[in-house]
Structures are given as C-alpha cells and as structure tokens.
Amino acid sequence: MSSGSPRPFRGATPWLYLAPALVVLGGLFVYPVYQLGLISFFEYTQAQVSGGEPATFQGLGNYAELFGDGQFWQVLLATVVFAAACVVSTLAVGCALAVLLTRVRAVPRLALMLAALGAWATPAITGSTVWLLLFDPDFGPVNRVLGLGDHSWTYGRYSAFFLVLLEVVWCSFPFVMVTVYAGIRSVPAEVLEAAALDGASQWRIWRSILAPMLRPILVVVTIQSIIWDFKVFTQIYVMTGGGGIAGQNLVLNVYAYQKAFASSQYGLGSAIGVVMLVILLAVTLVYVRLLRGQGEEL
Amino acid sequence: MNSPGFPRRPWRLAAEASALVIAVVVAFPLYWMVLSALKPTGEIESSEPRPWTLAPTLDSFRRVFGQQEFGRYFANSLVVACTVVVASALIAFLAATAVTRFRFRFRTTLLIMFLVAQMVPVEALTIPLFFQMRDFGQLNTLGALILPHIAFSLPFAIWMLRGFVKAVPEALEEAAQLDGASRSRFLWQILFPLVFPGLVATSVFSFISAWNDFLFAKSFIISDTSQSTLPMALLVFYKPEEPDWGGVMAASTVMTVPVLIFFVLVQRRLVSGLGGAVKD
Fold first, then answer.
1. Band (A295; pLDDT cuts 50, 70, 90)
2. ipTM
3. Are B274 and A178 in contact (CB under 8 A)?
4. Longest dimension (CA), chain B
5. At a CB cut-off of 8 Å and minimum separation 6, what does A225 contact?
6. Quick one: which of A217, B202, B232, B247 is 20 to 30 A from A201 by CA?
7. Secretion signal: which residues (chain B) (predicted)?
8. For the segment A158-171, what is each residue's pLDDT rounded down to a tens digit?
9. Nearest residue, CB atoms, B212 vs list A111, A112, A123
10. pTM of the prediction?
11. CA A84 to CA A61: how far, in whole Å?
C-alpha cells in the first residue's frame, strides 16, 4: 500500500480528471493548429470569408509567394535579431538583479522587488504608451535629461526597435529575476557556507554550485523568454504605430496580422503563422536537446 | 546576515545603494504614468516636464470615466480575467492531479504534449481561432476572449502545479482512504487546500495573459464594441497623430492598478510558489 510512487491504477479516474483539460486543449489548441496549417494551403481572402467564392487549394502557393517576397525575409531577420536581443538582455538583467537581491538586506530587497512587481504587473499596452510618453520628443523627460532636444526615437528604424526593446526588457526581466531569486534561495545555505569555508571564490561557488543547481530554472526562464519575445505584438503595434514608418519595424507577428486582418489575405497570414510555429518549435527543441545532452532531465 | 559567502561591508553597501537606485529607475515609468494622469493637460504638454505637479487634478480621470462605456469595458476585462483564472485553475488542478497521482498509459506522452504546447506561439493561432469563433457564433462576445485564454494558460499551469501536487505525501491519501473519505472528498477537501499556494502562483500568469490581451480583443471584437475590453478603451485616447496623453495615462493607471493590487496581495505566495515549482 505504501509505495512512494503513484500506484498503478487502471480505472477511468485519471481520464475523468483529465477530460476538461483535454477537451479545452483539443478544441482550442490542437484543432486551431491543424486549421492554421490547412488554411495556409488555401487561397483565402475576403471573397472566401464572406462565402462568395469557394476556397481554392493552392498547395504551397502561399509559401511560394511569401518566400519570393523580399519583405518577408527582411521581417524574418528583424524578428530573429530583435527577439534574440530581447532574450539576452532580459536574461542578463534578470539574473544580475537576482544575484544582487541575495546580497542586500531586507529594505533594498523589498524596494527592488516591489518595483519589479510593478513593472511586471503593468499591462503591455499601458507600458507601451507610458514608455512612448517618457521618450516623447516634445514633452518626454528622457530627452530633457539626456539633452537630446526633440530627437524622435520612433522615427529611425534602429532607435525605434531599441525603444521597444527597453520596454520589453523592463516588463519581462521581473519574471526572470523573481524566478532565479527563488531558485537561489532554494539552494541550502549550508552548501554555500561549506564551500566558502573551503576557500572557494564567489565565481567558483557560482560556477560549480549555483549554476548547475539553477540550470533547470534557467531552462524554464530562457524558453519562456524566447517564446514571449519572439511573438511580441502589442509593444511593436502600439509603439511603432502598426510596424513603423513604411513597415521598418515589422516583426512576424505584426506582419501576419497586417496580412490577414488588414488586407484580408488569411491564407498568407496563416503561412506566416506556420513559419513562426516551426521556428519556435525548432529553437526550443534544439535548446532542450542541448541541455539533455549535458545530462539534464526535463 | 554576516554568513560566509556574503560580501564584506563596503561591497554590501555599494550593492544596497545600487539596488535602491535600480528600484527607482524601474518604478519611474509607473510614477510618471500616475503623475501625468494627475497633471492638468497644459502641464503634460509642457516642453519642460517637471517631475512633480503643483496643480493635481482628476480631470483626466473624469474624462476617462465620462467616456461612453468605459465602466463597461472595465467590467468586461474583469469578467474575462476572473473567468479565465478560476476556470484554468480548476481544470489545471484536476489535470495536474491526474498526471502526478496516477499511472496510466500515455501519461508521459501527455506530459510531453503539455510541454510542447507551451512553445506554440498562440498569436499565430489568431486566424484559425477567428474562423472557429465565427462558426460557433462567438465573435463579438466575451466568450471569444475567455475560451482561448483558458486553453493557452493550461499547459503552463499544469506544469507548474505538478510540483505542488507531487509535494503532498502519498500517506495522506492513504490515511484519508482508511478514514473512509471518498476520492473526490480527498481531492477537494484535502489536496485542494494544500496546493492552493501553487494555484495562486499559476493564477498570476493566467490573469496577466487575459488582462493584457490586446490582439484577440482587436481581432475578435469587431462590430459590437460594447463587448470590448480595457486595452481598446485606452486606444480611444491614444490617437497617434494627436494623443490625449492625460486620458491615456489616466486609463493606463486605471488598467494597471487592479493588477498591481493583485500582485501585492499574492507577492509572498508568488515568490515561494515559483521557488516550489522550479525546485521540482
């Protein structure tokens, strides 16, 4: 009776417990993924949506159109570089501040924790508008403090991306910081003390004790950051006014939205969605495999 | 606090000073949001912005709440977020219990599927969901916002809750059985209260994803704007050509405050919850 692991149970109970989750996931997750793939093979525009014309099978037509379009490759490259920059900055800031949190007493720790929770709690759309106001060329405080006059951050391609990056890092580093901090705190203090008594340097303690113990947590926060930053929509959409001047700040997500909903090319939009899905699954699976290769269990 | 491994005094003071400075920098956008919401219009649009105001006013808030249906949007947002939180917490709790306390065929397969589901960029599903919602007659209803968000928060919630359900000793279940408690009684009266802290931590994520939702509200609520949510109300004041900054900041404040309250309330549980979930 008292085995440590769950006992073998062959009845229907587990499936009963799982039923609601499976119904919801099947209907609103698995089926839409299947449909996304399906629509991407069809000519699907306003005429088909309203039922005026039957949807015609196009095979890889949408993909051919997409891959033949220079703008797509430019958006793809921008998305990857932008997401990578966001992930790296978020992880760096989040981890550094998590370590900082373990080095300070209660009052500064609480102050930083509350400020971070505030940034985390801020909805993407309000964060976007507030950062726009902060960097407004005419009455934003940032330009005044930096003495930049009426320099417009959203006008140039790179400065606009940079501004969005700042906002994204601001609202997403708290998740990394709090999670990594919780992870460090769960490392037993005796282990750290023993290492310090043995004369291990801070760097050595980090490399040989903390980093290996934190690896599962770092996997979680890295994967989550990749997923979140690769599909940033609200910030780009609001801060650059739907993708920047002449679409200079488009990322795949906004690009797909513009194609599908603004110009009613649902088939093409779906093809972009499929490309995103494939890239994200590939990136995450490669990352997970790399970690498992190092003997990490997931 | 002077345990070995902690930095010496001057270093610690430097660390504490930088922690405070960083806290101020991180909190500044929120301070500026509230400040701008309280400034009279002329003062916001002054080319010499001051970090304080001598004439605080509630004009911007009045304008926001005077805007047609703002209260309704607020209520809609609350309904969407709360329904998503409660429904996904209950469904995830049942599923997490199934995958941790039972052995059955396809258990591992299911777990891997929940993991993979987390990697799917849900925004990419906007197009098929649009057609699905249309076919089920859910376009322009809150259902179109609620249903997908329940689904999207489930995989992560199940993964997080797994650790909490695992942490409850088996012996407890056996004792309950010996005492004649039925399985469902054990589930709701013993297990549920024990994993409640974990539910709080996961609910933070489902709350944020539903409350923040902009893309689905923009794509699925197209003609009946009375079914819209706060992000859409905010855009009423944000016209790229000539934004009403006071209105935008007041609406932003109103939209941020409930989440802030929620975060502060669950703060301790959130940190310990994340610690508990990742330790596993």
1. low
2. 0.89
3. yes
4. 75
5. A86, A87, A90, A91, A172, A176
6. A217
7. none
8. 999 999 999 999 99
9. A123
10. 0.90
11. 30
